Amino acid sequence: MRQMKLGLFFAPGGHHLAAWRHPDAYPDGFNVSTYVSMAQMAERGCFDMLFVADVYSITPKGKRADTFRFEPLTLLSALSMMTRNIGLVATATTSFNEPYNVARKFSSLDHISNGRAGWNIVTSSSATEALNFGLDEHLPHAERYRRAHEFVQVVRGLWDSFDDDGVVIDKQNGVFFDPSKLHMLNHAGEFFKVRGPLTLPRSPQGQPVLVQAGSSEVGKNLAAEVAEVVFTIQRDLNESQAFCADVKARAAKFGRDPQHVLIMPGVMPIVGRTRQEAQDKYELLQSLIHPEAGLMGLSRTLGTDLTGVDVNGPLPDIDAAKLTQSRAVGILEAARRDNLTVRQVYEKLLVSKGHRQIFGTAVDIADTLQEWFEAGGADGYNIMPASTPGGLADFVDLVVPELQRRGVFRYAYKGGMLRDHLGLPRPPNRYV
Ligand SMILES: Cc1cc2nc3c(=O)[nH]c(=O)nc-3n(C[C@H](O)[C@H](O)[C@H](O)COP(=O)(O)O)c2cc1C
């Protein structure tokens, strides 16, 4: 029986815009122990993977918690020592990195974790990241994706630097690796010139799992060509079915098996033992939203400074055509369609970063997750607990057993690698 995939979208204080103000949030302050206990809790729930997002800039005001973040590869290396099975997926942008560094870091994580690494390929959408990398503004959208495309080709080429059996460690004859099983990349393209090889043997999974999260036309094409997992924002089943069908059809055109492109929309669940309890949990979080945090979050997402606007009036004119990320376009379209005030936009949509919010008992939550999964609207979900640790514990202790009982989620890990959990093949080395 086909089973759904579950990822935990990491946010140490929870995903709701005001979650960090919840009485239970940040019991130890900003500290790695919070991440360790969340990782172990997700592993207890047999989650396929953890996912760490990343942005290289912050909004210099103190009203939001998701400004601070550890460097993802460093964090996941630490977590790999504190967990055994769960996959470890980190974001690394192709806009402000070099492919050699990225290839080496993810290969290292795959070795260190015994085959649990995944790379979330993003092109970066925040306007201020470029300012930390010698630029005055971000690259144009099309150029970001051309660079991303070439970047991925280089990284994958470097991961194949050695055949799987290239490292022989033959002490008798004094041969550490077999030079005939070493391949120089010798790449020269529009953005990169990389000779290779990588300074590591091929990693346990052959190549770390590739994840992608862009929803623009070029973003979907990149996903279809290379991604094995696609993170997405879908709030409506019909749209999600169309998105899945679209990306999988594009993947088939690239000669890929559509079953090896797993679509995982993000969902923010609020689980209660009763519906009323779920509603109360939601209302507590909503009551904690600081209007400035709402405005700041919207400003950042929409790439438009909203300081001083009347929160009880409509959004000012923002040209959707100029927005470079699909998350922003989705929020803007929903705001216009439903005639929302600025306050309603952040209270209804931004609280979950634009992702679908689902409420209720474990049965309610399992019903909707199963419905989308069986109707071709998702292969699994990126779970975004509204608050942590409580929201994650509710999911693991209440929803996971319900999904297991229905046969749509595993009771135990069957293999040790992320590819095993996700049912993805091991990529052959391009040179063999
Ligand atoms: C679930 C999810 C997670 C994402 N994580 C990140 C991230 O960690 N860092 C980032 O810069 N962009 C992130 N993005 C944004 C996209 O990867 C992409 O860069 C952005 O949406 C622009 O691409 P698009 O115009 O093709 O949508 C994420 C998007 C989604 C849906």
Describe this structure in words.
There is one protein chain. This protein has 432 residues and is an alpha/beta fold. It is 38% helix and 14% strand. It has one domain: TIM Barrel (Alpha-Beta Barrel), CATH 3.20.20. The strands form 3 sheets. It has an 8-stranded parallel barrel with strand order 1-2-3-4-9-10-11-13, surrounded by 7 helices. Strands 5-6 form a two-stranded antiparallel sheet. It has a two-stranded antiparallel ribbon with strand order 7-8. Helix 2 (72-82) links the parallel strand 2 and strand 3 (87-93). Helix 4 packs parallel to helix 5 (217-226) and helix 11 packs across helix 12 (390-405). Bound molecules: flavin mononucleotide. Flavin mononucleotide binds at residues 53-55, 91, 93, 122-125, 213-216, 219, 231-233, 266, 324-327, 382.
